[in-house]
Amino acid sequence: MKLAFVFLLLIAAAEAVTLFVDPLGGIVAFGFILLFALLIPALKNEYFPSRLILSLSLVPMVRIVSLSMPLENVPRIWWFPIMYTPLFLAALVVAFMLGLRLKETGFNLRRPFINLLVGISGIGLGFMEYLILKPEPMVAELTWQAALVPALILLFTTGMVEEYIFRGVLQQTAIELYGKWGIVYVSLIFAVLHMGFLSVADIFFVLVAGLYFGWVVHKTGSLTGVILAHGATNIVLFIVAPLLF
User: Are 151 and 233 in contact (CB under 8 A)?
Assistant: First the structure.
């Protein structure tokens, strides 16, 4: 159990290196974390800790791929499918190795009404986070022609892929080891990975949002609501709110 918290500290330290020292140094640090996450399950005989550490390998993968951006001459919105497609495939491979089927990780339509309400709540979360970060808009104008494709990209990348990684695969193995405290553990990691915005308020906001998403998935057994909510949050944050205000 202590090993999992060591990984949390290492992830936070690698984020700090990325932000305050050098992004290349951050890539190297996350590379070592990835190496440890793959080696330790092969060396340890403890079942549940090994499953959690293996699922944690997805976290440094997320940062290594994201730190490899930007891509010259490629519009920013297209970075997302380029980055998240290999991450989704990696998550599917890790889930297969863990014996987790898609339905078990939350790809189902259970509790549709509740999940619809959860999805709608993402609109409010997006406006709240905009008041904290106030990012530049990802599109030039707020029209269907300009916003539809970027919105769908955000929904299926930051919404679906991130929720599958964090609330689908990682939370599943964390709960196996820590019970409901696994939701807190995964939410802490999720918040730490948002240090790049250099906002303590946003880290706290993401921690609370992560706890909310984790609790919803734990109660409903479905990722549908949080995928919609996470996608809606980022659509409002990066497309709608910047152009409205």
Answer: no
